[in-house]
Amino acid sequence: MLDTLWEALGLIGHLDAQVLAIVWLSLRVSLGAVLVGSLISLPLGAWLAIVAFPGRDALVVLLNGLMGIPSVVVGVVFYLLLSRSGPLGSFGILYTPMAMTIAQVFLVVPLMSALTRQVVEDAWNGYSLELRSFAYSPWLCVRTLLFDCRFSLVVAVIAGMGRAISEVGAVMIVGGNIFGFTRVMTTAIALETAKGDLPLSIALGAVLLSIVIPLNALAYGIRRWAMNRFG
Fold first, then answer.
1. What's the rounded Cα separation, in Å, for the pair 24 and 60?
2. Domains of the chain
3. CB 39 within 8 A of CB 157
4. What confidence category does residue 117 fall into, taking pLDDT thresholds of 50, 70 and 90?
5. How far apart are CA 155 and CA 18, in angstroms?
6. How far is residue 43's CA from residue 57's CA, in Å, rounded to a whole number?
7. Chain mean pLDDT for the chain
8. Among positive and negative, which fits the CA dihedral 45, 50, 53, 58?
């Protein structure tokens, strides 16, 4: 056991090329998904928080339900959409990092939208009278509240990043776990553990934890700082 741990630490300490390639692809895919997801989720969540329209409650329930959707289900759905016989098969992006990013976008949008809606709704309850007295349009209210809640919304973005980078089912299905092309940390850990290559699995697991734990600590610190500074 100790020999395995030392070997894993050696892979990290010597900046093993395979480990670096897998980590870089994981970050590239997940950061891309979170970036696109933020552009969708933050305005959507804020809009749902302040605007009343027919079907709003149903949409909120749907988003909340999709927060817990199994990633393998998302993977199967996008596999069917992106396969050669699927409606999006002509784009030829199945088993590519782009397909993995798209699947992760679908996974992070419900989570980030729901968290954004809750944060902005709390702010809207406190500032709605003032904003309405200025005759702000709904979209101007959305922009104002997103800016006002920007520090609290960092938590939503970081939660999305944690969801994306730790996901395994969808990216394995639509990415294919191809060595040197679509193999990310989670899929590599699953494969190498099954093969018995524990040092590589442990090394990648350690790197994954070294990313996820500081992300959560950062979210907690930013929120505490914002609460202390702005009340």
1. 35
2. 2-230 (1.10.3720.10)
3. no
4. very high
5. 31
6. 17
7. 89
8. positive
Q: Which long-range contacts (CB under 8 A, 24 or more apart) does 24-31 make?
A: 25/97, 25/182, 25/183, 25/184, 26/165, 26/184, 26/185, 26/186, 26/208, 27/165, 27/211, 28/97, 29/97, 29/100, 29/101, 29/104, 29/164, 29/171, 29/184, 30/104, 30/161, 30/164, 30/165, 31/161
**Cβ–Cβ < 8 Å for 48, 59:** yes
List the structure tokens of 88.
Answer: 């999006």
What separation in angstroms does the CA of 89 have from each of 84, 93, 97, 171? 4, 8, 15, 17
What was the pLDDT predicted at 220?
Answer: 79
Q: How much is the pTM? A: 0.89
Distance (Å, rounded) from C-alpha 165 to C-alpha 208? 8
